[in-house]
Design a protein that fits this description.
- The complex is a heterodimer of chains A (383) and B (345).
- Chain A has 383 residues and is an alpha+beta fold.
- Chain A has helices at residues 4-25, 37-53, 72-84, 93-106, 109-120, 235-271, 278-300, 312-338, 349-357, 367-378; strands at residues 126-129, 145-149, 152-163, 170-176, 187-193, 199-204, 213-224, 228-229.
- In chain A, helix 6 runs antiparallel to helix 7 (278-300).
- The longest helix of chain A has 37 residues, at 235-271.
- The radius of gyration of chain B is 20 Å and the shape is globular.
- Classes of the chains: A alpha+beta (383), B alpha+beta (345).
- Chains A and B meet through helix 3, helix 6, helix 7, helix 8 and helix 10 of A and helix 6, strand 10, helix 7, helix 8 and helix 10 of B.
């Protein structure tokens, strides 16, 4: 429920979407044809441009760095209106919602003034070089190394599942700088421009047919001391801070989108009411109830604005969201494949979402790792 | 509702309520059908009047306070009739506040039953005829408050003209209800009102029951967590094994979301939210109680630990105020009509 402040903001954002999306962003959306990967990327690029130009990209960023100084509540309004208007996924989501805020928390003033304004102006797309072939859920087992060279560091290793890697200008690379100490303590974070000699990215073809993420190879990549993010050995802290933002503000956008998707599914079921089996209606009722609960949990997260720290509730919501999302796309895909004409008229949207949705219980911490975290940190069970 | 509570004020109320029930209720013992001294103490502490405005002798607390009482009673598995008493107080405050005083100190106990066309009120003789099911607590309480779409009738339990009272099947021995035949019963008093008040009362009962279930689920999860931290097998606490961790973490995940929706339902007069809250609270409660039993192993199947009370209550809570299957039907027909997630506005 909006208070007076957010009501005006919502009206302003809604009008902006109505004006800008059809005229400047969603130029290739024709009825009956899904976007090609290139069209989708171009759309997201245009979207990032208008978000920046009109000042919405930095809605929740501090004024000091060119933002509007809003908080979680304002960001929620933007996410809800974006979902309502069916806006594309912004191109620099990682930079704006996750990496930028982590830089703001952990880095020097020089680094903030060097890195933050280009993120907000849409000049620098960032990606995360965290996971490795041998270090997924067990991130602290990473083996990419950075060794000291005069004036800087030389990095060797390989990263994987790097979303946006092929489009990014800069990558946060976690690398081991002190191999002898406890696994978590010997890791540092570096800002590595993607055009540095020795950086090579290779897109990975996914089961969806798209290539949203990459392998990144780092061979003798030299960066300067000024590119060490935070202090030496702060890499784990950087990663955890970034993941904290990922679980709060970034997941909010996904949950809000789920709400919209469930409403769409309900509308489509109603439009085909006589042909949709009653069993499907029973299933969508449960999905709807879950989406409603996620909406409430999300709204309660505005407590974060008052200085609250995200607890294991956010881990719980990640699991609940991803499983609800999968339930929704499973039902949508079944109906799309079995009820002729079912869908939004823009191609096989549900079957695509079904395939994409299989990643939701894996990325940003698998459901199994989330359950470990909940059990150990939330319930206090022994390791 | 004229006031709202800050999060710390609400936490204080919750702590107060939880400590009261902890002190008063033996977790392992069987619960009596109606614990009169407990309800008298609840009355003395203002539990039944807290939501009323100052003018009616209350503290003017918002619905979240009643939700905290419901969750606390759920933790301790005190079934009632505190819930009935709370919703009858709210109903009478709206239409007949002069009848409130006997309810507030918990000495006269009410149960509430929702009736449709099967209960007929003869406008000439003023008598009630018909058969009403799910009359809670039967003669263990003093008054039955029969809420219909056209008015509410308060009847003395055992009044002349009450015919057959058939006890309904129950899995939880402390949760009794009856199908009662009314054969020319004269109510103590009747008040006319429209269907809105019936629906509001119904939604309120559902919201509070969802809070009860979530409170109970939270407590039985705590009981399970304490047990698996101390019980050792293979030289280690069983709670260190991932199979146990994941089962209990799964309960927590359901609980967090059921709790959020239950709190919303207790605070909003909305039949879709109330139905969805009951569906999620029901799932969370059953899964948590069953999970707690399983991780206890053999002792979970005994009456030596309180888990069995929660397993029974979780099943029983599916029956009232509307069977869970009817809640699902209600949601499904809402879907066919106009059910959508509330759009941000």
């Amino acid at each position: 429920m909006d208070d007076v402040d957010t009501r005006a903001l919502r009206a302003e954002i809604r009008a902006w979407f109505e004006r800008v999306l059809p005229a400047e962003v969603c130029l290739d959306r024709a009825a009956g044809t899904p976007l090609t990967e290139e069209q989708d990327f171009a759309e997201r690029r245009r979207y990032a441009g208008v978000l920046t130009r009109d000042g919405w990209a930095g809605l929740a960023w501090p004024r000091e760095w060119g933002g509007r100084g809003g908080g979680y509540r304002e960001r929620l309004v933007l996410a809800e209106e974006a979902a309502r208007a069916d806006a594309p996924d912004p191109l620099n989501r990682l930079g704006v919602d996750i990496i930028g805020p982590a830089i703001d928390v952990l880095c020097t003033d020089e680094q903030k003034s060097r890195f933050l304004p280009p993120i907000l102006r849409g000049k620098a797309i960032w990606c995360q070089g965290f996971s490795e072939p041998g270090a997924g859920s067990d991130l602290s087992a990473l083996s990419t190394r950075a060794e000291r060279v005069p004036g800087g560091w030389r990095i060797n290793g390989q990263k994987v599942w790097t979303s946006f890697g092929q489009y990014a200008d800069c990558c946060v690379v976690l690398a081991r700088t002190a191999p002898t100490v406890r696994p978590h303590a010997g890791i540092s974070a570096f800002a590595v421009p993607m055009d540095t000699p020795g950086v090579e990215e290779r897109p990975i073809r996914q089961m969806t047919g798209g290539s949203d993420f990459c392998e990144v190879f780092l061979t003798g990549v030299v960066v300067s001391d000024a590119d060490l993010l935070g202090a030496e050995g702060d890499g784990w802290k950087f990663a955890m801070t970034a993941l904290g933002f990922e679980r709060s503000i970034n997941f909010m956008a996904r949950q809000v989108r789920l709400t919209k998707n469930v409403s769409d599914l309900v509308v489509q079921i109603r439009a085909n009411a006589t042909r949709v089996p009653s069993r499907a209606k029973e299933r969508v009722v449960g999905i709807h109830a879950r989406a409603m609960a996620l909406q409430v949990v999300e709204a309660n997260m505005t407590a974060l604005d008052a200085g609250g720290v995200p607890g294991v509730e956010t881990n719980a919501s990640k699991v609940f969201w991803s499983e609800t999302y999968q339930g929704m796309t499973d039902l949508g895909a079944e109906l799309e494949l079995t009820v002729p004409g079912f869908g939004d008229g823009r191609g096989a949207a549900w079957t695509s979402s079904y395939l994409a949705g299989r990643a939701t219980t894996i990325y940003a911490g698998t459901s199994e790792i989330q359950r470990n975290i909940i059990a150990e940190r939330g319930l206090g069970l022994p390791r | 509702m004229t006031s709202t509570l800050a999060e710390d004020e609400l936490a204080e109320i919750r702590g107060h309520v939880d400590r009261f029930f902890d002190r008063r209720v033996d977790a392992v013992a069987d619960r009596p059908v109606v614990d009169r001294p407990l309800h008298e103490e609840m009355g003395d502490l203002g539990f039944f009047s807290q939501g009323l405005p100052d003018a009616l002798g209350g503290l003017d607390l918002p619905p979240a306070a009643a939700a905290a009482i419901a969750a606390g009673a759920g933790r301790a598995l005190v079934h009632g009739p505190w819930l009935d008493q709370l919703v009858v107080v709210e109903l009478l405050a709206a239409v007949a506040p002069q009848h409130l005083p006997p309810l507030l100190d918990g000495r006269v106990l009410f149960s509430v039953a929702f009736a449709g066309a099967e209960l007929v009120h003869d406008p000439v003789t003023g008598t009630l005829r018909g058969t009403v099911s799910r009359v809670r607590f039967g003669s263990h309480v003093d008054r039955w408050c029969l809420v219909t779409g056209t008015g509410t009738h308060v009847v003395a339990a055992g009044a002349p003209g009450i015919g057959d009272m058939v006890e309904e099947p129950a899995i939880d021995p402390s949760w009794t209800s009856y199908t009662v035949t009314f054969d020319g019963v004269v109510p103590e008093f009747s008040v006319a009102h429209g269907p809105e008040l019936h629906n509001r009362t119904h939604n309120r009962a559902k919201g509070l029951l969802a809070c009860f279930s979530v409170g109970a689920a939270q407590r039985v999860l705590e009981i399970a967590v304490e047990y698996v931290k101390t019980r050792k097998q293979f030289g280690k606490p069983v709670g260190s094994f991932q199979a146990i961790k994941h089962r209990l973490a799964g309960c927590y995940i359901e609980l967090v979301h059921a709790r959020a929706l239950a709190a919303l339902a207790a605070d909003h007069d909305d039949r879709t939210v109330a139905a969805a809250a009951r569906v999620l609270a029901d799932e969370a409660f059953r899964h948590t109680a069953e999970g707690a039993l399983q991780v206890h192993g053999g002792v979970g199947f005994t009456a030596e630990v309180p888990v069995h009370h929660y397993v029974k209550a979780a099943q029983q809570a599916r029956a009232w105020p509307l069977p869970i299957s009817d809640e699902l039907d209600l949601l499904r027909s809402a879907l066919e009509m106009d059910l959508l997630l509330p759009e941000p506005s």
